[in-house]
Every structure is written in structure tokens, then in C-alpha cells.
Request: fold
Amino acid sequence: MSESIQSDESVSFERVHGQIAVITLNRPRVHNAINAEMTARIEAMVTRVESDSTLRAAVLAANGKSFCAGADLSEVAAGRARELSTPDGGFAGFVFAHKSKPWIAAVQGAALGGGTELALACDMIVASKDAAFGLPEARRGLIAGAGGCYRLARAMPPAIAIEMITTGTAISGDRAHALGLVNRIADPAQVRAEALKLAQTVTANSPLSVREGLRIARAAAHFGEQELRALQEQAVARILAGPDFLEGAAAFLEQRAPVWKS
Reply:
């Protein structure tokens, strides 16, 4: 079951299986390059996901042969570069946006420049075998300024990330998977389905546990042992005081699916 918006829009929103939001980039003729309209729509959809308690995970997908070619250079040439970012969300209204729920990028074809940065701004990546990830900005006298440089170095071996950043060369979906950048690899026609399968596995779990675990995992790159232990203790206290802890144990003992309340 899904609730969708018209497919002629530059970005569409769909509710799948009741609990999963699918945001789809829909400018395939220009390889889903981000323009001002898309930026405003993506930011609004992120806000919608955050504010809807019935949505427990989100997938960022794309129509066409490419995931995203980054910024629409025709917008930049027309002097509208600033409209491709927002104060809160950054590039595409997405890369720095507050997201308390798990996001999964479903990447088929090329994700270059800002496209790679969109994928890196998600928590997990499902990619096609023909995917390509790259930050070619150095070839154009630029830098991947939407989080790409430091997020890539956190997500994969730093030496490989440095090579990609300084040479501008891309890597395949298969190599990205082998290096740990990508969670799952799939045939091009199955990327969205595989991302939804991963999202369903997430949404079967306690929403409170997922949120708290995700918050700590995201903080791991920023804090030391002492700070992370404090965050963990706070999270455990919230979970033990919440409604799902006893339900999880009861469901296990009764050999039934849990009914989460958080």
C-alpha cells in the first residue's frame, strides 16, 4: 500500500507499507541535478518525515539512469546558486537537515559531486552494481562543500577517500560495497526494492530503540569514550522508562510479534 504524489513533480513523496517514506528525485533528463524547486521540496519533505510520528524510516531514491549529478549548473550560471541550499538543510535542503529517523539512499547509476553528498547524508546506502560515487569538484576548481570531504573519509578508508577527493576519480558500486561505503549491492532494477526491504527490517523494531541507537552511532565520530558512555547511559534510561522494553521481552517469551508503543 502506498500514498503517492503526481509523478510529474521534480521530487515526489510516497508512503510505503504505512511506515516508510520514499522521496524520489524526478528530473531524469538532467540526471536529477538539483535546482531551486527541488531544494525547497526536499526540505519540506524532510520536515514532513520528521513531524509524522507514523513514519519510522525514509528512503531517498531517484528516477532515471542516474541518482544525482549534483547541482544544476544552469541554475549556477543564472546566478541562482544560493537557492540550491537552505539555511537549515544545506545543499538540496538535505545534507545538513536534522533527521532523527534512519535514512537509506537507493543509488542507481551515477551519484557524483552533490549526488555523492546526498548519499553520504543518509545513514545507509543501497547501490546498484552500475553505480558510481565520486567527488569531481577539484577538477573544476571547487571543493565538495556539502559535507563530502569529511563524510567520505569517515565512511571508508581515509587513504581511498583522499585519493577520490584529490584526483576527482569515481569508484563503482561494487568497489564502494567492498570498501564499506555501501551497505547492500543490488541489480539496477532492484535497488529501490532492496532499500525498502532494509527499511522494513528497521521499522519492525522498536522506534525508540532505533532512534536512541541511531543517535549514539551518529555521535561516535564526534565524541570520545567518556562522552559516548554518558550518551549511552541517558539512552538506556529513556528506553527502560519507555513502553517498549517490557513489550519486547513479553513478545519474545510469548513467541509473537511485538506491538510497539513508542
About this structure: The domain at 2-203 is CATH 3.90.226.10 (2-enoyl-CoA Hydratase; Chain A, domain 1).
